[in-house]
Amino acid sequence: MRICGNCGAPLEPDAQFCTECGTKVEIQEGRKCPSCGAPLDDDSLFCSECGCKIEDANPSQPVEEPIVKEADVEKHEEHDAVVEDAITKNSADDILPAPKKGHKAQWLFIGGGISVIVAIIGWFLWSHFSNRPEFTEIQKVVKITTTMTSIHTQPDSSSPNVLNSNGDILLLKEGECIFVVEDAGEWYRIVRTDIDSYFAGGYNEAYINKSVCEDTELEPIPEESATYLRLQGNDAWFISHKSEGRKLVFEHFASFNSDEEYLYLGTYSKGMYIFNYCKKITDKILLPYRRHIEMSSGYVSLIDLDMVPEKELIGLFDEEIKNHKRICEVVTLPVLERLFLPLSLQQAENVPSPYNGHYEFNGVIAGKYKYFMWLNVGGGNVLGQYIVNDNNTGYVTLSGTMEKNGDFEMSEYKKDTGEPTGYYFTGSLTSTGITGKYLSRNRSIKMSFKGKKGGFSD
User: Fold this and answer.
1) Rounded to an integer, what distance in angstroms lies between the CA atom of residue 35 and that of residue 50?
2) Per-residue pLDDT at 61
3) β 341-342/226-232 pair status
């Protein structure tokens, strides 16, 4: 029986197409005698016409060749090639499907795109942050050796000069000290602290040639914890040096004639206070820790930093630390000794007293030494400074206590070291002036003094 080579369905003897799948059927001619060409039956052993013996006895039934589509051949050939390649490169148990055409080019395109994006981001970060200094500490202090010199915006003598806050060229005088941030070959990268926090013109760093500088040393601030209060005009600063742990230093600045206040965070390094972060605040921040300090024009509200938990103070600078908004403000021992006075603000609350306030006196000691003195009185504390006329040693710091009736005792502190001099004032403050004794601790010196508010008294 004939069958379809494509679907296996039975075929009629003379059928030319399969009735089931429509595949064309190739008719295979019957057997013939190799001697005379006469037709033979399928099972004939001898030719019935000439008697020739037929050698292919028991021939198989003619079989129709199956029809195989060309697309199927290509598909199987491709699969065989993939399998053979996978077996060659990997183990027989780890055969991977062939990658699709075009994937290599696609990945090259994606990789190139990522590289371009990374390059753009890198350029943006460099251009945005390259001019922002990452100050952590001061390398050294140098002193100017020439009569007058200027500093530059770049380490190049032909680069523009740095301008001061008035827009003029910033000139440095001989003997002036500056703080070096980085050694830059023939130049020093520097930062200034006695003008605006940032140079005029948008620069917050500058360069000076080493040829006009020499190294110098400053007496270090004592490493032990300390508290400093500075009162000058309408401005007040409070510094708290916490030497334990990370040796952090905090500063609060407030002014009577301004609504702006600032907090600073820094470290104690190489005997200096180096403030790296600054935050603008309002007078509503840390209210439970504030104390009123009387000034010449009123009072300022200072934060008693010694009383604030360190974690709470650091938390106020989260944004500045996260975004690396750094500055570099430096405080050294000479500044502290000349303008700052150790004082515990914890006891400086605004206790009611008829004498709380700011006073300025002109007077005389021992009937011949004319002096000028200013005092701040508040909460049972009194602090101030005085200077003897025609005395080039400058102001001497005073600190002491005052009773509610106006009686006081104030000790002197050395200008250079901040240590007690061994002398003190004792007396009384009245509504019109001041009077009392100027004494040494060993009582070897005893002189009277008096002064009048805003005037001079003989």
Assistant:
1) 8
2) 45
3) antiparallel
Residue 333: DSSP 8-state:
H
Q: What is the pLDDT of residues 109-164, one digit of tens each?
A: 677 778 778 777 765 555 444 444 455 678 888 999 998 898 898 899 899 888 87
Would the pTM count as exceeding 0.85? no
Alpha carbons 236 and 305: distance in angstroms, whole number: 14
pLDDT in tens, 36-55: 877 777 667 778 778 777 76
Cβ-proximal residues to 263 (8 Å cutoff; 6+ apart), any chain: 250, 251, 252, 253, 278, 279, 281, 285, 303, 313, 316, 317
CB atoms within 10 A of CB 343: 18
| Contact assessment for residue 383 and residue 398, using Cβ atoms and an 8 Å cutoff | yes
**Structure-block tokens of residue 305:** 């930093």
Confidence band (pLDDT; 50, 70, 90) for 170?
confident
Residue 289 is given by DSSP the state G
Q: What are phi and psi of 402, to 5 degrees?
A: -140, 135
DSSP secondary structure letter of residue 86: H
Those residues with Cβ within 8 angstroms of residue 316's Cβ, 6 or more apart along the chain or in another chain: 263, 279, 281, 285
Q: 């006695």: which residue's tokens?
A: 194
* Sequence-ordered list of residues with C-beta below 8 angstroms from that of 209, at least 6 positions apart, any chain: 157, 186, 187, 188
| Cα(114)–Cα(354) distance, integer angstroms | 74
For residue 191, CA distances in Å to 184, 188, 285 come to 14, 10, 30
